[in-house]
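Researcher: I'd like a candidate sequence for this fold, 333 residues long. If you have to choose between options at a position, lean toward the conservative one.
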């Protein structure tokens, strides 16, 4: 190769490097942690959302999603990880965040709001309070509020009435579920999503509280063969962003991100509802018996839990009392 061609090649490489550096300088990279296992439906949807934001901003905001096991965090760590900038985004169930924002888990009170319709009626009262608390306490902006499907009991032995829960050890994932299990005469084992199947395999627990969607994604049907479909709560989730990092974005990029979050709210809801229906069908196909409680059992459950609702509100002052009153009204209790 002659001297002229060598110099041209070097110049081309230098230009390419300079262009790449300029492009990199024009790109903001965010890490987004979700506690769901990598192949779970919510984790898949989070990746699709992130890819859409990257595309819509022409690569100016690149969001990389990390699922359970891919970063050294668990579900209860999400709020602080976002607040301290260890990750710029996080998605977490409010119940898992009870250590940081216990006053916000009103929709996690057992047998208070138990359907998508009731969640929709209660959320407008809960949302502004949650947004303000997370902003003031942790500098986090909520981009999307959504809900996982109804939470139910997935068990290794048949249960057809609530009083048959006595003596059972069941995985719970927030303090309110722990109290509920105690009231039902059973006991709760507080473990994360990734620990459920190993605990079932080792017979450390007799079952788990989760949604049909998660039970199906985890292939829990290989171990548990009974679902007691009490629909005790919905699974209120918040996708949050470090507010300081959000403000750093160029105005146009920030507006695009927020517009995409608004657009994708409906997609998270669609995933949840459709996922719940298909998951129940898949569980049945895998020989899981789904048992619906009687109306009398549901009434007994609400009566049993009502003192717990009031105790919860009493612990959390004016915020707890106002959220409980609004949710009772919205959910027709």
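Model: Candidate sequence:
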């Amino acid at each position: 190769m002659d001297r002229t061609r060598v110099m041209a090649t070097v110049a081309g490489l230098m230009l390419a490097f300079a262009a790449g550096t300029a492009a990199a300088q024009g790109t903001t990279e965010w890490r987004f942690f979700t506690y769901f296992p990598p192949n779970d439906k919510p984790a898949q949807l989070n990746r699709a959302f992130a890819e859409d934001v990257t595309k819509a901003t022409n690569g100016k905001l690149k969001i990389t999603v990390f699922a359970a096991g891919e970063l050294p965090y668990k579900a209860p760590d999400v709020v602080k990880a976002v607040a301290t900038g260890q990750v710029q985004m996080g998605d977490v169930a409010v119940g898992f965040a009870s250590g940081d924002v216990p006053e916000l888990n009103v929709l996690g009170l057992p047998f208070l709001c138990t359907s998508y319709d009731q969640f929709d009626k209660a959320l407008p009262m809960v949302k502004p309070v949650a947004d303000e608390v997370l902003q003031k306490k942790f500098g986090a902006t909520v981009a999307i509020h959504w809900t996982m499907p109804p939470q139910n009991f997935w068990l290794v032995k048949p249960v057809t009435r609530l009083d048959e829960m006595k003596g059972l050890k069941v995985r719970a994932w927030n303090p309110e579920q722990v109290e509920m299990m105690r009231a039902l005469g059973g006991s709760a084992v507080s473990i994360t999503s990734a620990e459920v199947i190993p605990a079932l395999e080792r017979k450390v627990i007799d079952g788990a509280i989760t949604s049909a969607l998660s039970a199906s994604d985890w292939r829990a049907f290989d171990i548990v063969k009974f679902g007691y479909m009490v629909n005790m709560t919905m699974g209120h989730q918040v996708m949050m962003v470090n507010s300081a990092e959000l403000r750093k974005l160029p105005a146009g990029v920030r507006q695009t991100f927020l517009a995409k979050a608004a657009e994708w709210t409906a997609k998270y809801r669609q995933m949840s509802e459709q996922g719940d229906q298909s998951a129940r069908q898949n569980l049945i196909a895998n020989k899981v018996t789904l048992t619906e409680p009687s109306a009398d059992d549901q009434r007994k459950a609400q009566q049993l839990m009502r003192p717990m609702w009031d105790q919860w509100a009493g612990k959390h002052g004016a915020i707890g009392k106002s959220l409980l009153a609004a949710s009772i009204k919205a959910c027709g209790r």
